[in-house]
Q: What sequence folds into this?
């Protein structure tokens, strides 16, 4: 069953990714649904962030978010610029505004 696009999803994703880039992992996790809470610990968030910055340097800025509905989720892609390259932050939201997915990936994988 498809849901309607969450109108505030783009702003929510930008704020979440800004918190992630700033290392505010507890704040990021506070938006997770139960499945994400079980799967992604504070340590996993920190490890993922360290892996990205180790590969392409420090976070610098964000581009314009793009939101769309995929199945039961609103999915937002946000271009992210780092010192040595670009990535895409992808955040998936359920109808209750909980984060059901969080990824930082190469643009060609988005």
A:
């Amino acid at each position: 069953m498809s849901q309607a696009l969450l109108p505030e999803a783009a702003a929510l994703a930008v704020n979440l990714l800004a918190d992630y880039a700033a290392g505010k992992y507890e704040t990021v996790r506070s938006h997770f649904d139960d499945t994400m809470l079980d799967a992604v610990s504070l340590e996993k968030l920190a490890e993922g962030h360290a892996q990205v910055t180790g590969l392409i340097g420090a976070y610098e800025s964000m581009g314009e978010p793009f939101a769309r509905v995929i199945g039961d989720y609103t999915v937002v892609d946000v271009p992210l610029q780092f010192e040595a390259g670009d990535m895409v932050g992808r955040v998936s939201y359920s109808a209750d505004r909980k984060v059901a997915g969080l990824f930082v990936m190469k643009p060609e994988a988005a």
Notes: The chain has four helices and five strands. The chain has a mean pLDDT of 95. The two ends are 23 Å apart (CA to CA). Helices lie at 9-21, 25-29, 34-39, 42-56.
